[in-house]
Design a protein that fits this description.
By secondary structure, this protein is an all-alpha fold. The protein has four helices and no strands.
């Protein structure tokens, strides 16, 4: 899906997940605490992940400090799609 400025592309979560192997998806599930999914086929696994990952991410956001939140908000608002960050103290 292309946004109004035609420079930033947004992709649905399921679209991004389908590019990974089932083993990679299972590793993500383990890392995020999504259990009882190893017997699912890849499409079913993606369905479960698509349903559960947004709430897991929202929960993790509650623990961000203000600088982290500000950085993520700033990155989300970038128009170029490419961001480089200089080390602290480098201008």
């Amino acid at each position: 899906m292309v946004t109004e400025d035609f420079q930033t592309y947004t992709l649905p979560l399921w679209y991004v997940l389908r590019e990974h192997t089932k083993a990679e998806l299972l590793d993500i599930c383990r890392a995020q605490g999504i259990r009882k999914v190893s017997r699912l086929n890849k499409d079913e696994l993606i369905g479960v992940m698509t349903a559960r990952l947004p709430s897991i991410a929202a929960e993790k956001m509650l623990y961000w400090d203000q600088p982290t939140y500000d950085l993520m908000t700033w990155l989300q608002g970038k128009k170029s799609g490419v961001t480089t960050l200089a080390p602290v103290g480098v201008v």
